[in-house]
Amino acid sequence: MGKNLNAELLARDHRHLVHSLHSEKTHLDGKVWVKGEGCELIDADGQRFIDAMSGLWNVTLGYSQPTLVAAAAAQMGTLAYASGYAGSSNLQAMALGERLAGLTYPNINRFFFTSGGGESTDSVIKTARYYWKALGQPGKIKTISQLGGYHGTTLAAMCATGLPAYWPSFEPRMPGFVHIPNYDPYRYAVPPGQDPATAAANELERAILAEGPDTVALFLVEPVCGGGAYVPPSGYFKRVREICDKYQVLLAADETITGFGRTGRMFALDHWGVQPDLMQFAKGITSGYVPLGGIGLSDQIADVFDRAGSDPWMHCYTYSGHPVTCAVALAAIDVIEQEQLVQAAEVNGERFLADLRAALGQHVHVGDVRGLGLMAAVELVEDKASKSSFAASRKIGPAVIAEARRRGLVTRGRGDTIYLGPALVMQEPMLKRVVEIIAESVHSVLATSRH
């Protein structure tokens, strides 16, 4: 591999491909990855980088994991594809459903498989609407979600996503979507004398009452918000569960990022002892090796699907229950359990967050260091006392990410918040090196940055 091969390949790529979040300058300054080993990526010029985001939160078991590779190859040689439409199934899909029923929340025992998180969001929204129509309440169609939450970019998922930057190019948005303030403990303005968890949760009640309870189908929420690693205050989800029960609104947990061990629990709502009515997952279920997502239905919702005389659920994907993806998922769950990676994420995550706070917590421009398990974020601010942000034009966050890449680490962020989502298999020495590089990069950029 030649020294300038990376740039040559990016130019070749640009002639024929359009990428997610497409930007010509960003792309031509990027990397062409040719190999992954453990928790590292190797580019076309032979340079090696620590992957501090485990892909896009999804490569939880690292690269070149032999068990997953073998599972995919074996299944491709046995049954490469089978339709998942009613009247057709396969052994791997059945086995995965059975396995998930033993891993997810006790009230969730039935599953529908998709190809990723965005499809899962659309499936949850359509399931909620189907459910309420079947119960004779066709007016309950609205979805409430949080500002700052990310649920994907298919059209309905984009409307649920609470990141306004994703909207303007595709307006008008679909009707029936409402956003409430995020529970972010760092920035949520708690009214004087109120408990933070209750005050934030009560934003949901206010929205339901403003819209009319007879119009609201669903509250869709990430247990820990991926777009910033916002961890809810203790008690938030118990109050949310009470509100949803009071107004007959389904609670859907978007565990696309948090599922399969990342937060130190197999699924993140377990931290707070709350069960959702619906859940969705993707990413870590196959460690990103093949595209797979899905939704889980509570027994109460599944019973409506099975009612005699119910209209068919007119929702279908060509690749739902794909035998190869299900085989890889089963292998990934085996690895997670055999290597005790949920427990590792809890223990290593606590140490990782403590190290980040020790390295950066006192920095004059670090407003917040937060996270849960192996899911963390560093939020940079102009003024620590007032929490005021840097001017967007200064691009402080992107400069820190670029500096980290120069030092041999790749990750992502939004604005001036740096995301970190190491693989569950990353060992302590490399986790400490991640902390060192991020700290060095923050100090370097903010030592040289000028107004």
Please characterize this protein's 3D structure.
The protein is α/β, with parallel strands linked by helices. It folds into two domains: 143 residues, Aspartate Aminotransferase, domain 1 (Alpha-Beta Complex); 272 residues, Type I PLP-dependent aspartate aminotransferase-like (Major domain) (Aspartate Aminotransferase, domain 2). Helix content is 38%, strand content 16%. The protein is built from 14 helices and 15 strands. Strands 4-10-9-8-7-5-6 form a seven-stranded mixed sheet, sandwiched between helices. Strand 2 and strand 3 form a beta hairpin. Helix 8 runs parallel beside helix 9. The longest helix is centred in the last third of the chain and has 21 residues. The protein is globular and about 65 Å long. The two termini are 41 Å apart.
Give a concise summary:
The protein is built from 14 helices and 15 strands. With 451 residues, it is an alpha/beta fold.
